[in-house]
Structures are given as C-alpha cells and as structure tokens.
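Q: Structure tokens for this one, please.
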Amino acid sequence: MDRKEHWETIYRTKAETEVSWYEIDPKISFDLIKLASPTCGRVIDVGGGQSLLVEKLLDAGFEKVAVLDISSVALERTKSRLRERANQVEWIIADVAAVKNIGTFDVWHDRAVFHFLTEPQHRKNYVELAASTVPVGGHVIIGTFALDGPLTCSGLEVCRYDASLLSHELGSAFKLVHEVAHIHTTPTGTPQKFIFGLFERI
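A: Here is the predicted structure, written as tokens:
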C-alpha cells in the first residue's frame, strides 16, 4: 500500500475523534502560529487533515488560510464540517514530500507529518518545498514525536527528534527561534511526547 492509500484508508475507517492525533483544542499550534505571525498573515497547515486548527485560524482573521493533506477523504470531511466557511480556505490535496509548488505563505505549520518521513530523499524534498514556500523572514513550525516519544504511529515507523535534530534536518535556510515540549494525550488516554520547533526562514 502506498503512502496516499494508507492515509485514505485511515480516514475512511476511523472517525475524527478516534485517530490518535485528535485534539479538541490545538492550542499549542495556534499559539505558535500567532507568535510567528502576530499580524495574522498567510498560513498553511501541512497535513491538516481533520484538525480543528482551521476554525481557530479563520476565527482569528488570518489573511489567507490553506490546508494541505495527502488524503482527499480527510479534506472533504473537513470541508463538510466547515460548511459555507470552507470557501474561505484553500484546499490542497498533495504529498508534501513530492509536490513541487504550493504557493507562498508566511507561516508553514506541520503537526506530526515530518516524523513520518523516514526516507532521506523525502525529507530533502520536504525541506526544499518549505524553503521555496516561506519567504525570508517567514516561519516554519514543526511538531514531531520527541526522542522519547512513540516509535510507530498508525502502523508506520517514525523518526523522533529534538530541536537540535530538527535544526540539522532543516539546514542553513532556517534558524531555530523557539521550542516547546508537549505531552499529547490520545483519545484512548495514552501520553505521547512531542517537540515543537519554531524556525525563522533566513
């Protein structure tokens, strides 16, 4: 099963509140985005799926909001949830490790996509896309499993990080400006340790 079909199957077979990454309030993500863009500029949620973050971004009045996900099922469900507000969002069905151009955004936010990229070439493609998407002075926010976080998720192996390792992966085009350790509790009550890095595009 390829990566896209894996995630389409996950979203077809599980309810929004059954997936391990479900958050009733994506507060850390939103707070980091506001820190990166206090004037509420252009933001893309990479791997946004069925996250409730998009509502918070619309409520805050961001200039442009986009959600990218490999799963068309996830995005269609989120559109249905938003109803008429879905027209205020740019929806991008794409594999972030393969697509070449998604436009320009002041803030790139990714909670729990990067750690699934276990192939070096896929991580290289991701970083190149982020660098071409975010202009100098913009920001990239990446949340991944921490070094003592889970080894697998949704039946897939993951790579685990701290802020230093994330900085190394992103390379010289990005500078770490803030980091946050976080324990996410899954809907079944399992704690998962995360690290969030906020990087400036330089």
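A few notes: The CA atoms of residues 29 and 75 lie 19 Å apart. Helices lie at 3-13, 27-36, 53-60, 72-82, 120-133, 163-170.
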